[in-house]
Amino acid sequence: MRPKRRGGWGLIWPALLLLLLIPNVLPRLLAPLSGGEIPNLGDTPLWRLALVHLGLVLGAEAVVLALGVPLAVLVTRPNRAALTGLTEALTGLGQTVPTLAILALAVPTLGLGVRPTLLGLVLYGLVPVVSNGIAGLLAVDPALRDVARGMGMTPRQQLYRVELPLSLPVLLAGIRTSTVYNVGTATIGAALGAGGLGLLIINGLSEQNTSLVVAGAVLSGLLALSLDALIGWFAPRE
């Protein structure tokens, strides 16, 4: 089958996000919420808050991939089926325990700032990557493995040349889900001093400033949509 053309509609979200990060654009749009006056969204430029937020999410996702993909590979090897359910149950604890509880428990050990926030993001984002990685690898047709083995491929070659390429679409779906989850979760890290777009929401709630809350929510939402669209852009098509 010929590959499908990739639509460009998804790229509207990154473009809109970049537009709103231009100084004074978003404050002017939020003026009706402040009785016609252009609201003050703080001394830190919005683009800098967005970069900090993006750094938290990408840093956490790098750790999630470094842990999640090898773990999914490990438990899907032959004669290790018993580990699959156990692994999914253990990683699932990251989403069953409330994020605020994880962060609160991490603070006494790691202190305030980036480190407890990254821990919470990693635990929360690990589940979709591990679950989808396991599902994608287990869905590979056993006949294809037999063909690869008959061609003289080693188990390592089978993994890298057959199993991982075939499971990549399912794995990427898990990465997209994990990334979108963590954009929202990272806003909570602002309460611990990690910064990011959540700082607008925290300050807005404490000051009862609707413009700040809306600005933080809109920019966080656009960042999540942008990352989802960009990851989807590189996903393989049938």
UniProtKB/TrEMBL annotation:
<keyword id="KW-0813">Transport</keyword>
<dbReference type="InterPro" id="IPR051204">
    <property type="entry name" value="ABC_transp_perm/SBD"/>
</dbReference>
<keyword id="KW-0472">Membrane</keyword>
<feature type="transmembrane region" description="Helical">
    <location>
        <begin position="183"/>
        <end position="205"/>
    </location>
</feature>
<keyword id="KW-1133">Transmembrane helix</keyword>
<protein>
    <submittedName>
        <fullName>Glycine betaine uptake system permease protein YehW</fullName>
    </submittedName>
</protein>
<dbReference type="Pfam" id="PF00528">
    <property type="entry name" value="BPD_transp_1"/>
</dbReference>
<feature type="transmembrane region" description="Helical">
    <location>
        <begin position="118"/>
        <end position="139"/>
    </location>
</feature>
<keyword id="KW-0812">Transmembrane</keyword>
<dbReference type="InterPro" id="IPR000515">
    <property type="entry name" value="MetI-like"/>
</dbReference>
<feature type="transmembrane region" description="Helical">
    <location>
        <begin position="51"/>
        <end position="74"/>
    </location>
</feature>
<feature type="transmembrane region" description="Helical">
    <location>
        <begin position="212"/>
        <end position="235"/>
    </location>
</feature>
<feature type="domain" description="ABC transmembrane type-1">
    <location>
        <begin position="50"/>
        <end position="231"/>
    </location>
</feature>
<dbReference type="InterPro" id="IPR035906">
    <property type="entry name" value="MetI-like_sf"/>
</dbReference>
<comment type="similarity">
    <text>Belongs to the binding-protein-dependent transport system permease family.</text>
</comment>
<feature type="transmembrane region" description="Helical">
    <location>
        <begin position="86"/>
        <end position="106"/>
    </location>
</feature>
